[in-house]
Design goal:
Radius of gyration: 23 Å
Helix content: over 70%
Number of helices: 5
Number of strands: 0
Order of helices and strands: HHHHH
Oligomer: single chain
Strand content: under 5%
Structural class: mainly alpha
Distance between the termini: 20 Å
Length: 154
């Protein structure tokens, strides 16, 4: 449950950052293209158009400075890593449920997955990742729904 919640939480975080990255890219594209087109059509306001173009160029030049572009890449990579761990965990759960793994194996498997999760988080977020309470609540709700649908005995 905890691993699935972490997986959903980082995916939600990645999606939130993706919207910000797309917004900056859209502003850059509209600012650059629209500024040049506006300058050609309405030559009366050269300072306005040159300001729009300069702002667009500034955004382009500083795109790697904005933390959410780098965080988006890290969150994307961590999403994949944690989802792969979730797949491994579900395979192990099926074996546990079927009685094919003894208690010692369950403890070892859980420790192995926790270690791999920690390694992945440290690799992609070396300074740590702390999700907002809102993201944690959304992720917990989605994980509960997932497990209810996937493992209900109805």
């Amino acid at each position: 449950m905890q691993l699935k919640t972490a997986s959903i939480c980082i995916r939600l975080y990645r999606n939130r950052l993706a919207r910000r990255v797309r917004t900056v890219e859209l502003v850059k594209a509209v600012g650059s293209g629209g500024g040049i087109a506006g300058w050609v059509v309405w030559k009366d306001w050269p300072f306005l158009w040159s300001g729009i173009i300069a702002a667009s160029q500034f955004l382009d030049a500083t795109k790697n400075v904005f933390p959410f572009t780098q965080l988006h890449k890290a969150a994307s990579d961590l999403t994949v890593a944690i989802e792969l761990l979730c797949i491994d965990a579900e395979i192990e759960w099926e074996s546990i449920y079927a009685g094919r793994i003894p208690n010692e194996g369950i403890t070892e498997g859980r420790a192995r997955l926790a270690k791999l999760q920690l390694e992945a988080e440290h690799k992609h977020f070396p300074e740590g990742f702390e999700a907002s309470q809102r993201l944690i609540d959304l992720a917990t709700e989605e994980a509960n729904a997932y497990f209810s649908l996937t493992y209900s005995e109805d």
